[in-house]
């Protein structure tokens, strides 16, 4: 069976979300299909995959390698191949720089133009883009935002089904993120960074990390904790003032 043929079948039966399938398909189509898709599954060597991956950035290399490991895992399970040629290819190290994010105060004081309401809503409620697109006015009641779906179907994880306090600014979201992303790019941030804005807002409002994890839809509170341990320069100044005040009261 040709690699292209089996890959197209994989997208139909993999037990993952639609978004994950889109990521797999995109990585495969961009980086593998043209050079190796017309070859037989069992006939492609490790060296050929290494050569196909060599020109990619570390992030694309990693994503494409993981995609091919999934495809060959399924091929082995269906006895189409005996072994995976990508199993022993080493994944690259990815150095991720801490991404900048805006505080709620910075978001509040900024006019983002046409998408100002959408951006402020995301910053104050922590929804993922797909969750925000699927949200309707009927999902907001009793001063809470009820999150139970995504534009891709179910939420990213079961923990994604949640309720968060509603602070206003809701307006139906466009299905495409491009215009909002372009607006935020001017300020050096991304749509996803608005979830950090929300987490930081919770942190500076003295919301406990386990509660914040629930509000953000994190199945693992350690993910939230990574954001909670981020310290901005202005936060150091504020904490210093608070501590000096406490010491003054004690004296």
From TrEMBL:
InterPro entries: DNA_brk_join_enz, Integrase-like_cat_sf, Integrase_catalytic, Integrase_recombinase_N, Tyrosine_recombinase_XerCD
Keyword DNA-binding set for record: yes
Gene Ontology molecular function terms on file: DNA binding
Keyword terms: DNA recombination, DNA-binding
Keyword DNA-binding in record: yes
Annotated ranges, domain Tyr recombinase: 97-241
SUPFAM superfamilies registered for this protein in UniProt: DNA breaking-rejoining enzymes (SSF56349)
GO biological process: DNA integration; DNA recombination
UniProt name for this protein: Unannotated protein
Organism per entry: freshwater metagenome
Lineage: unclassified sequences, metagenomes, ecological metagenomes
């Amino acid at each position: 069976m040709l690699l292209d043929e089996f890959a197209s079948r994989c997208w139909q039966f993999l037990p993952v979300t639609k978004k994950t399938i889109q990521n797999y398909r995109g990585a495969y189509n961009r980086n593998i299909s043209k050079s190796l898709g017309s070859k037989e599954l069992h006939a492609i060597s490790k060296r050929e995959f290494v050569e196909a991956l060599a020109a990619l950035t570390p992030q694309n290399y990693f994503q494409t390698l993981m995609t091919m490991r999934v495809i060959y895992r399924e091929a082995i399970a269906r006895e189409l191949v005996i072994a995976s040629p990508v199993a022993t290819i080493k994944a690259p190290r990815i150095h991720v720089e801490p991404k900048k994010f805006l505080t709620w105060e910075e978001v509040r004081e900024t006019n983002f133009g046409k998408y100002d309401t959408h951006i402020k809503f995301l910053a104050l409620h922590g929804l993922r883009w797909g969750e925000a697109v699927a949200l309707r006015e009927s999902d907001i009641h009793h001063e809470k935002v009820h999150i139970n779906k995504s534009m891709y179907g179910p939420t990213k994880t079961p923990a994604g089904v949640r309720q968060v306090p509603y602070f206003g600014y809701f307006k139906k979201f466009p299905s495409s993120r491009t215009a909002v992303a372009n607006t935020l790019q001017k300020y050096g941030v991304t749509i996803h960074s608005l979830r950090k804005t929300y987490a930081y807002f919770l942190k500076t409002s003295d919301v406990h990390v386990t509660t914040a994890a629930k509000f953000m839809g994190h199945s693992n509170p350690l993910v939230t904790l990574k954001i909670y341990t981020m310290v901005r320069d202005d936060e150091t100044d504020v904490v210093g003032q608070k501590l000096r005040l406490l010491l003054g009261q004690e004296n």
